[in-house]
Amino acid sequence: MLAAPIVSAPLNRLSSPFALLIVLPPLALALDAYGWSAQLAAPLRRLDPARVRLLGTYAVWLATSALLTLDVAAVAAASVGIGVAGRRADERRWQLGSAILGANVGSLLLPFSNLTNLVLVAASGVGLATYVRLAIGPQLAAAVAVGMLLTSRGSASLELGDASAGPGAKGLTPTAAVSTVGQISHATKLAAVVALGGAAVAVAFGLMGLNMAIPFAASAAVLTGSAVASSRLRLGSLLAAIPWAGLGIVAIAALSAGLLGAAAGAVPMPDGGLGGLLLALAMGGLLAAVINNLPAAAFGAAWLARAHPAAIVAYLIGTNLIAIATPHGSVATLLVRAKGARHGVMTPAAVHLATAWRYAAVGAIAGFAALLVVAH
Description:
It contains 19 helices and no strands. The chain has helices at 4-7, 15-33, 36-45, 50-68, 70-85, 89-105, 115-124, 128-165, 174-179, 186-207, 213-229, 235-241, 244-255, 257-265, 274-290, 293-303, 309-321, 331-342, 349-375. The relative contact order is 0.16. Mean pLDDT is 85; it is low at 163-182.
């Protein structure tokens, strides 16, 4: 874990995303091993009715994505969402959908909230204050719009599930039921302090222009090392948690930097006007939805290196929100779907394509409208 930022250094502007893909999923797994997910699921599971549980988890994943990156949110949210839903199969599906939406939609606020943000901000040299000033409006607008749609679409199905569960049934699995009793252990508290401390130091590193992957690598090293040493985790499970396909995507994008730069040079540079912002939004969203948001970020870093800061945020609205439309558009989506599959919650690609575009469209439209207001 500690060596990840060093090993990834030859990838240049994609070195931080590569390192974070190595350390963040194991970090989330270690937090889960220390009971973080179980403790977080307990109060959320007590929310009633089901639509309130769904909105509550969505809000938690928004905040987690913004502060601890969308990859941590995605891995943790899948575990917690399944624990919140218990044995209710329908609510499990909605909770995993909430995890996908919360992790992706909440990833616009800060430069390190999403690896795509990190790549674009580092390449363009946009200051943290300027970025946050432009991103906070779109972030809030997209979060509210997607949350309203999620609650509206999920309410009927979830309330029907509540009625069929019978009086007093909370859908608890035996493990989940045990986690609702007793106090939070000292080890769980320490694990949370280490993780949140790493995120706070990463913010400080970002303000100083340093590599924000280093604090996350340090906190991941402490938590994964201690979890393996205390037999809470097996080394093999940590290796399995790393998204190797995502690492391959980043490595290929880094090796293809020359081709991406040549392609970017053939596209007109967007300005801060309506037409330029629409072009940036469309280009970022199209590349992320069709390929993946990490190669899209690599293209954007070459294309938007000297662009207006508002064009960079517009591009990120595309890579962060329109990417939701496809099951492979975001690494966070891939992580949640993989976690769900391991727990028997399967979501065919056709089903994702038939439903997720609504959230992608609503979030992108709301975020872009807010950006127009803030930028002008």
